[in-house]
Amino acid sequence: MRRNSFGVLFFLKKNQLLKSGEAPVSMRITVNGQREEIRTKKSINPSLWNQAKECSRGRNRKSRDLNDYIESAQIKLSQLFNTMEQDGKTITAKILRNKFLGMDEEDRKTLVAFFNEHNEQCRKLIGIDYVDITIRRYECCARYLQELIREKYGEDDLLLREVNSEFVRSFEFFMKTEKRCAQNTVIRYMKCFKKVIHLAIANEYIVRNPFAGIKFHEVPVNKEFLTMDEINRLAEKEFKIHRLELVRDVFLFCTYTGLAFIDVYNLRKEHIVMDNNGNPWIRKTREKTNNMCNIPLLSIPVKILAKYENHPICLEKGVLLPVMCNQRMNSYLKEIADLCEIKKHLTTHTARHTAASVIFLANNVSLPNVAKMLGHSNTRMTQHYAKVLDQSILKDMQEVELRINS
To answer: Residue 379: which domain range?
Structure first.
């Protein structure tokens, strides 16, 4: 019977240096001329590597650990090969590689591949269970994970069973330092990562939860909103450039209705209904949460709708307002703020915060009614938008003054 040929080679990937300047150590298994490579997740300074002896010539602890790993790997592979050959089993480089790694079919599941499978399934559910921006956040999270794996291990992916709490912490650190993400942005990505990991645990691809004992805390953020004086300044400003006038009008419409950008972007004729007294209302489910918004229209948003009733874009797309993309809206709002001498960072979402604080709550609209108009399922979420205005404080203290004097 013809004997199988077998060999093991350790070498450096000098063309794929890590940020530390070290080169990853790879292992090549050859059986009957067929090759399979394994990234050992070990690395070393190229100047310390002795290719002839396939070991490090260094005397530090890292070099000793690497040499011990190489020696034990060679012994283990030789034992596996000899056992399989004695048992008369088919031997290939791939089979030997998987035996060495202790992997069966389920163990070969990798993090990025599994994450991308999840994202592809969720993308098919856009409009049913998800919105596009949520899927894009998951996809961005998967890209960041792959970048970390390449930087940390010099590989394109990582086995799911190798994801541990150290890797989770490394991902958090990577996003804060390399991607310059703010704390709350980091938490959004970590929630995406955690959800996919819990799915892997449910499928028994991971035994221990790498998020166990790890907690993340959001930082309170004070969102800016406009005062009534600033709203009037915006409304009364005459713009010579049509695009700025259009963006201003859409912003004001959101200010007096509380609609988020994506909801005003998709606002159509069927979303405007009349009650028994002939008053116009917006009745529309939110794109983000699918919660129903019930918003009675004030005179200013009614005039804005009438202004753009016959706009070419509205007629072509079947929408009520010619809203451009969010990125361009936010860019033009900065220009508008400068022209109106408003020293605040304006975004499309500023209008929603202004509606909740200045238009609704400051005019004694109850919190449950504000929640209903904003499309919140409970008032706890609405409280994020509720700001205590200076005039409310002043009014309360003036009443205190009257009581003291009386």
So the answer is: 228-394
